[in-house]
Amino acid sequence: MTHEEKMNLLIDGKYPLSAKYDPEWIFENKMGCQCLWLAESLSQIMILKPGMRVLDMGCGNALTSIFLAKEFGVTVFANDLWVSPSENWDRICSAGMENLVIPLHGEAHALPYADNFFDAVVCINSFQFYGTADNYLSDYMARLLRPDGQFGLVTWGPEKEFSGQVPPELAEKWWPDFYYFHSLEWWKWHFVKTKLFSIEAGDDLQGDGVRVTRQWAKIMEKDDNTHNNEIMRWNRMVAKRNHSRADDYRI
Ligand SMILES: C[S@@+](CC[C@H](N)C(=O)[O-])C[C@H]1O[C@@H](n2cnc3c(N)ncnc32)[C@H](O)[C@@H]1O
Fold this sequence. Notes:
- By secondary structure, the protein is α/β, with parallel strands linked by helices.
- The protein has helices at 3-9, 23-28, 35-43, 63-72, 85-94, 127-130, 136-141, 168-171, 184-192, 209-219, and strands at 53-57, 75-80, 101-105, 118-124, 145-158, 197-203, 232-241.
- The chain is built from 10 helices and 7 strands.
- Helix 1 (3-9) packs antiparallel against helix 10 (209-219) and helix 3 (35-43) runs parallel beside helix 4.
- It is globular and about 55 Å long.
C-alpha cells in the first residue's frame, strides 16, 4: 500500500471531526490506533463543555488532548508517563492550544492532582497498562473525579472474556501481556464493584469496533489473525462518579 493510500484510510466519513485533522500529523504521532477516532467516538457519549477540567490520562503524544480542547473548549491536563511534557508542549503550541492544554508527567499511582479536581477523566487505549488491579480505582483514581463527574474509557479487547484458553484463531500471536485486554462487560464490573461508579453508557463504538481494528491493521499492514477476526474490537464506556468515597466502605 502506498503512503498516499494509507493517508486516505486515516480519513473516515464516520468520524467527521477527526477528518478535519492532517493525516500526516496523525500518522507521525500515532501510538496504538487512530486515536482521534477513539476520542471522537467517546465524546459522543460524554458531556464535554467549555470550562470543564478534563484529565487525559495516558495521553501519549497528546493528540487526543489537543482534539478535545479544540473541538469542545474543555481544559485538558495531558498526563503521560512515556512521553515527556516538553515534547507534548511543542505539539500543543504548534496546534495553537497552549491556553487550553497543560502537559504533565505523572505515573498512574502517584498522580499530582487535588481530590475532586476533575469534571471528567478520559483514558484512551491506556488504562489496561495500569488500571486492571481490583484496588486501582478505589485507591488511586476515583478521588480525582468530583461527584457526578464522568470517566470515559476506550479499550481494545475481546467480545467476551476467554474461558480456559485463547481462541485458536488468536492463539498464535497472543502474548502473555495481552491478558490485560478485557471485554466491555469485564470493564463495567471493574468499575461498578467499587461502589464508586455507575455505568452510564457503553458499546463497541456503536458497532464499529471490529471495523476500526481492521482498518487500523490495514494502515499498519498487519495481516495477522489478532487484528483480523470478529472477536477483538474497540469498546467505549462512560461511568459516573457516585457521591460515595472509598473511605465510606473501609472496615
Ligand atoms: C498505547 S499508548 C496510547 C496513547 C494515547 N492515549 C493514544 O491513544 O494515542 C499508552 C499510554 O499509556 C501511558 N502509560 C502507560 N503506563 C502508565 C502509567 N503507569 N502511568 C501513566 N501513564 C501510563 C504511556 O505513557 C502511553 O503513552
